[in-house]
Amino acid sequence: MESSSPHGEFLKDVLPRSRQDARVAGVAVTGSLADGRPDVYSDVDLILVVDDEAYDEVMRERLVLIGSWTSPVAGFTGEHVGEPRLITTLVGPPLLRVDLTFVRSSDFAGRIKDPEVLRDRDDTLTGALALRPPGRSTSAAGERGPRRLSLTRRGAVARAPMRDRD
User: Fold this and answer.
1) For residue 104, which phi and psi values (nearest 5 degrees)?
2) Element (H, E) at 44
3) First-residue to last-residue Cα distance in the chain
4) What's the whole-model pTM score?
5) Contact 85, 78 (CB under 8 A)
6) Mean pLDDT split into 10-residue runs, the chain, 166 residues
7) What CA–CA distance (Å, rounded) separates 165 from 19?
8) Cα angle vertex 12, ends 45, 34, to 5°?
């Protein structure tokens, strides 16, 4: 993924804006971006990790919050697929599909996929990923431990975890 791609530009715009909300403990990406194999048709699958005590408030405000980070053209919640924490949006221009899943900090370790950490206040996400429950399948990413995804001119590159202090 080139940093000048719609995916990279979206992430470069949204990540700093997510830092402005103290309730957001971190941001991770899954899917083809995390796997390092995005193409022009790939969407952006984000996990927004929210402090437990602020979760209900953020869930009530999530559409407004998303609107403060980006320019949604359309969006809808994920109840129809059994995932009420999900907001599917089209942002742009240029048009890009973005799936945002809001999870409590205490629920982040119970993931199904191995995400790449983009932003991690106080090591909340990397700590949760290190506590992989026994019996989960291990991918190459899981065997190496949690990684941080960095955007470069050549694309998304997985890096060792680094402290990202707000």
Assistant:
1) -70, 150
2) strand 44-50
3) 26
4) 0.78
5) yes
6) 77 94 95 88 95 97 94 92 94 93 91 84 89 49 45 47 42
7) 10
8) 35
